[in-house]
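Schema walk-through. Below, the input block comes first and the output block second. Nothing else is stored per chain. Lengths vary across the set, and this one has 197 residues.
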Amino acid sequence: MDESKRSLDELLEGMGIGEEAESVKPVLEERDPVEEGGDQLDPLQVVEQFMVGLLLYLDPAYSIETRISDERVYVEIVGGDLSKVIGKEGRTLRAIEYLVNSVLAKHTGGTVRASVDAAGYRRRQEERITRLAQQISDHVIANGEAQALPPMRPSERRIVHLALQDHPLVTTSSYGEGAERHVVILPKGLKEQDDGE
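--- output ---
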C-alpha cells in the first residue's frame, strides 16, 4: 500500500490507537520551550516544529507556509492531497488547528493564536458566510423584519457579526444554546428580544 494513501484508522492503529487496542496511559513529559542553543522559541518556531512533525507523519508530500501578524500565526498547508487535511466540512482542519493552538498555548500562555488553512478552504468559507450575511441583511432591510440564520459554530457567527458591525441599517445578535446557537439579523431600532431559545 502506498504510504501516502493511509487512512486515519491505519494511522491511529500505527500509533497503538485502535478499536481493539487496550487503553494505554500516556506518559506526559514536561519540555522546556528552549532550544538547544538556549534561546526561547518564538511562536512561529513552535508552530512550525509541531506542524512539520505532524504532517511528516501523515504524508511527507505536505509542507507549510507560515507568517505571523497581530499576535496570530497563519499556517497554510500545501502539497499532497489537501482534501485529507481539510476533511468533511473542514473537521480535520479544525482538529489540526485545535492541536496547534493547544501546543502554542503551552508555550506562549495563550497570548498567541494560530489559524490553519489548506487550499484556501477557510478563506472561501469566510467569503461564503459574509455573502450570506449581506444577502440576509438586504432581505431584512427590504422587509423590515428580523431574520435568523441557520445554527453556526462560534467562529462562523463571529464572521457574521464582523461583516455587519458597521452596517448603517441592521444589527446582529446571537440566540440559542449549544449546537442550536444562531445569529439573528435585525433592522436597527427594532427592540431585540430573546425568542426563548
